[in-house]
């Protein structure tokens, strides 16, 4: 396949940035989207030009590093996949493909297609954990009976990889789906009950502090999420937050 790529180039966070055109030829339909970008970058390097910066790591849909907005869709035209799992057979010979970074004030562009998602790390640091007593008196997790429905729902929420597609695709740049998944995976388990109130309050407050928008129940985040995180988690987080706000320990 021969393709025209319109790619966002930006030298640093202070640069204005712009879309630039590139031509790629003889692209195999069996190659992944990132492999296609690798070929383009190799060609740019051979020409003595600056390669395009983009995030990637595992290339197996696990780490959440790859984060491209492709033809107006987070992770591209396929569903339930990350950018690294997108294959070129989803496109046609002669297509023009627009490639941009995540667009959100809380995700500033570092360079080209790379954005700073440190806001997610700070939200997790605010409460996305369980404090464990390591004095030698810790209870074995298997000794705590958990209803299967709760365990399954918690596991589903825990599949969130923190890629940020929910933020990128939301018209409000809301991080509610991400935060609610992290709150839910712990709120549903007995190990997470001890700090449940503090967790909900602190994580939501940090989310607001980072500048993410509010949820207006559009549902685009669930559609574009590569792991299919459900909007039910947002409802659960709202209940956790309300309960924590009106009661005291």
Helix and strand succession? EEHEEEEEHHHHHHH
| CATH arch. level architecture of the largest domain | Orthogonal Bundle
Spatial shape = elongated
Number of E strands: 7
Percent strand equals 5-15%
- Main sheet characteristics: 5 strands, mixed
Mean pLDDT: 95
Return the domain count.
2
Q: Could you state the CATH homologous superfamily of the largest domain? A: Alpha-helical ferredoxin
What level of helicity do the residues show? 25-40%
State the secondary-structure class.
Answer: alpha+beta
CA-CA gap between termini: 62 Å
Could you characterize the architecture of this molecule?
- By secondary structure, this protein is of the alpha+beta class.
- It has 2 domains: 109 residues, Ubiquitin-like (UB roll) (Roll); 129 residues, Alpha-helical ferredoxin (Fumarate Reductase Iron-sulfur Protein, Chain B, domain 2).
- It is built from 8 helices and 7 strands.
- The strands form 2 sheets. It has a 5-stranded mixed β-sheet. Strands 6-7 form a two-stranded antiparallel sheet.
- α2 packs parallel to α5, α3 runs antiparallel to α5 and α5 crosses α8.
- It is elongated and about 60 Å long.
Please give the structural blueprint.
Layout: E1 3-9, E2 18-24, H1 33-46, E3 69-70, E4 73-74, E5 96-100, E6 109-111, E7 114-115, H2 118-127, H3 148-158, H4 165-169, H5 176-187, H6 196-210, H7 220-224, H8 232-246
Parallel strand pairs: 1-5
Antiparallel strand pairs: 1-2, 3-4, 3-5, 6-7
Helix pairs in contact: 2-5, 2-6, 3-5, 5-6, 5-8, 6-8
């Amino acid at each position: 396949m021969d393709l025209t790529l319109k790619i966002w180039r930006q030298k640093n966070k202070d640069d204005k940035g712009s879309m630039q055109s590139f031509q790629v030829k003889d692209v195999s339909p069996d190659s992944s989207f990132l492999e296609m970008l690798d070929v383009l970058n190799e060609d740019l390097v051979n020409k003595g030009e600056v390669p395009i910066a983009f995030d990637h790591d595992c290339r197996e849909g696990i780490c959440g590093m790859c984060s491209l907005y492709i033809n107006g869709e987070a992770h591209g035209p396929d569903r339930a996949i990350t950018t690294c799992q997108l294959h070129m057979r989803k496109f046609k010979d002669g297509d023009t493909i627009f490639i941009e970074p995540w667009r959100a004030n809380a995700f500033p562009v570092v360079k080209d297609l790379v954005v700073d998602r440190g806001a997610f790390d700070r939200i997790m640091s605010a409460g996305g954990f369980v404090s464990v007593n390591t004095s030698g008196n810790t209870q074995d997790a298997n000794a705590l009976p958990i209803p299967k429905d709760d365990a399954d729902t918690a596991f589903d929420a825990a599949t969130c990889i923190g890629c940020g597609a929910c933020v990128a695709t939301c018209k409000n740049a809301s991080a509610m789906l991400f935060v609610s998944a992290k709150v839910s995976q712990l709120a549903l388990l007995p190990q997470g009950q001890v700090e449940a109130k503090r967790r909900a309050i602190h994580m939501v407050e940090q989310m607001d502090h980072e500048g993410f928008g509010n949820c207006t129940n559009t549902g685009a985040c669930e559609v574009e999420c590569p792991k299919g995180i459900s909007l039910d988690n947002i409802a659960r987080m709202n209940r956790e937050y309300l309960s924590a706000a009106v009661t005291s320990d």
